[in-house]
Design goal:
The protein has 103 residues and is an all-beta fold. The chain has one domain (7-98): Jelly Rolls, CATH 2.60.120.10. The chain contains no helices and eight strands. The protein has strands at 7-10, 13-21, 24-31, 37-41, 46-60, 63-67, 72-75, 81-96. Strands 1, 2, 3, 4, 5, 6, 7 and 8 form an eight-stranded antiparallel β-sheet that branches. It is globular.
């Protein structure tokens, strides 16, 4: 169980840091209902995403893909990305280096 707080990041979306080190951070993003949005954004960190549960439509740069439980992918540094929740669930993201803005 993480000692980090659950932080609301949008309507029906929250995040919780699960583990961190200066070189790596693991974060759970929970989407509570279909239509909840992970807004388009970019950051200098390399991100890997694992779909623990639910279904999501992701935009990464100019590409659009639908992902579900067990799927994973990497978002390159600086790539604009975001998602729309199709079925409620949880994404587990890893960032390198750590997202200090999440602490």
């Amino acid at each position: 169980m993480s000692d980090y707080p659950v932080v609301k990041t949008g309507e029906d979306v929250s995040r919780q840091v699960l583990a961190d080190h200066p070189q790596l951070m693991v974060v759970a993003f929970r989407f509570g209902k279909a239509g909840a949005e992970g807004a388009l954004h970019d950051h200098p960190h390399v991100q890997s995403t694992y779909v623990e549960s639910g279904r999501f439509r992701f935009t990464i740069g100019d590409e659009l893909c639908e992902v579900g439980p067990g799927d994973s992918f990497v978002v390159p540094s600086g790539a604009t990305h975001g998602c729309i929740c199709i079925e409620p669930g949880t994404l587990v993201d890893c960032f390198t280096p750590r997202r200090d803005d999440f602490l």
